[in-house]
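Teaching note: in complex prediction, the entire set of molecules is handled at once rather than each chain in isolation. The prompt given to students was simply: 'Predict the structure of this complex.' The entities are:
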Amino acid sequence: MSVRLTARELTLAYGERTVSTRLTVDVPDGAFTAIIGPNACGKSTLLRAFVRLLAPASGEVAFDGRDVRRHHPKAYARTVGFLPQGLVAPEGIVARRLVGRGRYPHRSALAPWTAADEAAVTAAMSAAGVADLADRPVDELSGGQRQRVWVAMVLAQETPYVLLDEPTTFLDLTHQYELLALLARLRDEGRTVVAVLHDVNQACRYADHLIAMRADRVVAEGAPADIVDAALIQEVFDLPSLVIPDPVTGTPLVVPSL
Amino acid sequence: MRAAVDRRAVVACGGLAVAGLALAFLGLSHGAAWSTPGEVLAGLAGNDGSVVIREWRLPRVAAALVFGAALGLAGAVFQNLTRNPLGSPDVIGLDAGAYTGALVAITVLGGGAAALAAGSVAGGLLAAAVVYTLSLDAGLSGLRLVVNGIAVNAMLTALNSWIVLRADLDVAMAATGWSVGSLNGADWAEVRLPFAVIGGFALLLVALSRAMHQSALGDELAVTSGVRLARLRLLLVVAGVGCTATVTAVAGPIVFVALAAPQIGRRLARAGGVPLLPAALTGAVLLLGADLVAQLLLAPVALPVGVVTTAIGGLYLIWLLITEVRRR
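The expected output is the structure of the full assembly:
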């Protein structure tokens, strides 16, 4: 397993409030990693540290062995893309324009729009299933459509690493599975995908690698089939459950036994 | 599709430019007596009556266009920074701060044009720093910053009145006439330096514009797509305050243009966010139009243009406040 993106002895805090202490995590290359855990256990905060949005209180987040904050901002943005939660589009912008903003790190301040930019936007929109929304103002779209437009924007950034913070929020069931399948497809194309996911069963079905967190620490790491059992679910979520093979895929399926 | 949106923006900007030129021609024709189009063209070409056209009327028309564009740019910059249509320098106290700086420069330092300009910029930046510090915990964007700005604006306006009251009579009289914002008596000697300064800031803004629009996606995406946010914000504040304070130093605080021009321009161009070029062109058209109204309304008495913009701007501000508060 080759690894380029790592966190070592990472302590993360917002002001006085410590979110996680001494985390050590590797992001396996070319895999789909899902971070799972209860609310407020520091999942999103860990992602934010990976994309330079949060300076660690101590420890280091490194890419290719060098502190991520010492990489050139635009060069790093061409390598690692991020989809945060709770985005608000600029008023009146149409979908295709918004997706085009994903090209920012590939363009210099005054460079014109190129055929490569155009191709990346078209490909990203069709991959995210929003090609038919191109001319629609984003503020007129439904929550689910909007979320998929944002996903397309991050895809247009054409980064080998794609990090997503709860990307399935606001999506209906069908679109949740479509998005997860899209992320798996990106992995098949050779990209590295890291997503914070709420649904453990979805994570087990689509991810190659799970990072299970609870209250500021990593409880377990590994392939879903290797680590997910009733004991882990009890420890991470305080939830008694049965873990059975998913009848469709054979991956672990958590059935609460409350 | 990209082409279709671009076409709309191009048509809007072209239309605004034509409107600006038409108003400019009207402005050049207007004086103690109206000139015919032929006389204006002859004057511009340097023939008969060229002193009236080129030395008296042209500087005022050019000042209205350039200052209007500068105010439109400043408005667009701050509305982008705050992600709020109310976050304009005239509303959040930066114009008042620039005016305070200018007043201090005249009354205390007794300085000339350069001291006045420097005082304006310093005052504007100081006001920006105060508003920003007050709003730190709520973040740079949002209604909170605007409300803090309105409060700072009110206090600075009171401070400005106090400085004028305490000043010597002649300084006070000049300051009072100037406090409403006026282009009366603009001449080339007075506007040459401000034009150059505004041109410099405008070039800086052209270079920053793509990063500025990227930052309108929110801090997180701005950072993760490679924007150096802290540096960008600092440069934007300097350029925005620079534009508005330079205008204030010469013409006094002219409100409403920076508030309304970016929003009108945005709607005309149907663009996302608050684009700079439509804002600048709309600002130029608005200020020149307002200045013509100010000259014609009670002719032969020329009103200061600030009276006209304040009257219209007050109504617009009330409407905007109501819709903004409802939206949240």
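Point out the following to students. DSSP finds nine helices and twelve strands in chain A. The CA atoms of residues 5 and 27 of chain A lie 6 Å apart.
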